[in-house]
Amino acid sequence: MNILLVPFLAVLGLSAHVQLAQAAGPSQPNIVFLMTDDQRWDCFGCYGRPEFRTANIDRLADQGVVFDKAYHTVAICMPSRATIFSGRYFSNHRVGFTYPNNLTFPKKDFEDTYPAKLKGAGYRTGFVGKFGFPVTDEAYHTRDQVRGYDLEEHLSPYFDFFAGNGVHFRGDFASWPEDDKLKEIFDPKRPKNERTLKTGDAMIRFLETQPKDQPFCLSVSFYAVKNDSDHDMYPPHVKEFADVDFSVPENWVEGKNTKLPEVLDNWRGVGLHKARTSTPALYQRLVRRFATQGYSVDQQVGRLVAKLEEMGQLDNTVIIYTSDNGRFHGSHGLYDKAIHYDESMKAPLVVFDGRLAREKRGRRETALISMVDTAPTILSLAGVEVPERMQGRDYSKVLHQTEDMADWRTEVYNESLFLSKLHGQRKNPKVAEVNERFIAENQSYRCRGVTDARYKYLIYYEHDPVIEELYDLEKDPSEMNNLADNPEHAEVLGKLRARTKAFYQEIIIDHAVATTETPAPPAANGSKRDRTPVAANVPGWKPFLMEGASVLVESADDADGFRKLRPTQSDGRFTANQKTANDPLESLGDGRLATGIGPVFPNGVRTGAYRIDLGSAKAVQAVTSWSHHYKGARGTQKLAIYGSNATTDPGWDLGKFTALGTIDTTDRAKSEFTAASLRAAEGGSLGTFRWIVWAVSPVTAAGGGENTAFQELSVETAR
Fold first, then answer.
1. What is the per-residue pLDDT for 691?
2. Closest to 562 (Cα-Cα) out of 592, 531, 600
3. What confidence tens digit (pLDDT) does each residue in 131-145 have?
4. Are 124 and 92 spatial neighbours (Cβ–Cβ below 8 Å)?
5. For residue range 465-477, what is the model confidence (pLDDT) as tens digits?
6. What are the Sulfatase N-terminal domain coordinates in residue numbering (predicted)?
7. What is the DSSP string of 135-153?
8. Could you tell me which of 175, 157, 176, 174 has the C-alpha nearest to residue 119?
9. Looking at residue 651, what is its pLDDT?
């Protein structure tokens, strides 16, 4: 028996014997959030595969609650981590790797994450390990890794104790406060193969320095089990699995899986499977390596529980164990993650609450849980108010068996927005055009869908025609039989298709945008500022299509062309006004418009916005813009279009609007006349709105204005 396991068994046995915890006590609980990297949900004894030797985590499960239907909202590390911290879906915060969802996380939003809220409520907050995404003064679109990033400068307002790296941005290792013991733990001379032990040592150091009369929240993000090089393996633990033959899932595919949608040939997981897991020998070689790393993590869990017992804090501590995403490891003929099958999307989730009475522990829970629920649940457990902007649900009552399950969710939402080929184009200044080309060439496998208690639905929504998949998880848990074309399941397919559309519309409300050209942090040499170019107010229009509308973008170079684009006149008289960056505190020129057409303004603005009040909620079929250059000074034109059906005036707060798309005539910058229209296909609509806003972006590289003689913006509504 491993020496670290003995005190853990004694600890949990003691806790069960004395039953120290009833309901929540008068003091706030301590919270420890443990997360691994790329660890599949079924790589644990408590999830049915004892060969992985996770005895400490299994004991935690025996004294806690194991969630059997927990899911990642997005199964790739950076956006998953941003979702876990913020309680917001990826399409809402948009912090990820590839355009257009490649924003940094702004500090104003990080104020509404669970570490920031807990610190504000008096908790001592700590972080150890892989942080994973950059927090910057303002949100901006990255073209490469954020450089010259000072972790302490940007993150010390939220963490009292820190020992870790940025990993996916140039945030080299940092630690604070000044601590000789931490310097010893992370001595550069210490072998790289002790990376998980170092993380465990820093975790224990946080507990050793914890004041007695203050609650704490410690977030530990292990670098394991991701990566499989020799320098990632702790040698004594390698020996534990040297002769183990691991079980092989029934959906592991030797060689290429010809049943996959062809669009997935564009996903890196196909080629990686061929190189790493496509034969029995390759499969066993790598699974031993992931088991080794998981075993190293398990030992740190044993150390954690033993230390909490030593401190007398175990009975007032909540421990949450999960991962940031799964990994295929040959299942479905894929390697890597992100795609929506369970090996990627299903999450391990074990929660130990030392305050719970014994009869409420040691059970399995089948409620549908999403990783977006993590932040609101942590705050609720701490008795801290959950910010309205968080989109997840607090599952603490599910944990404590006080939730009315008739009111609990009936499905979870998942999405995948990462394109590996587009990631390789991140430095390309024309990445938006590359993105559109990939979509036009049917190379996009962006996907969204929902999973309910029995079925999983997913749609590759940018493929033409769309590709849909439907799986009966009860009869086909390995997801090997796609039922999307089965007429017997047409009703289920239609229901989940509609729920996916509705869910997407719900989560993109108040989504993140980069509204200004925000400089990147100082360059690494400290001598210059890296002014990474920023996209217009919203990125390319495709990610923000109103569901149910097939949207067309058209343009024209002359007045005759504009007359063909211009919407027909509609019933009602609309009111419009203009707001410009030259006069940011006032609305200018309120005026009545001709029926359905307008406004027309003399224009010399650098940036600005135009708003139309439709008077009542109307189905909008098209929005159109045109402008004429003045004295040859025509600049490029980008208009971001938003709509709201709010019954009260939402003002100029675009956070209260839904982004519909952009009109971009950049490539017509020198045209004397430019017109463009964003419109629904025949018989469709962009959505139902009362308020429409056009936000004009900066129009030249130098930030100069359009200098147009005049400009017209128009809207067509259903009669």
1. 84
2. 600
3. 999 999 989 888 777
4. no
5. 999 999 999 999 9
6. 29-384
7. EESS--B-SS---S--HHH
8. 157
9. 75
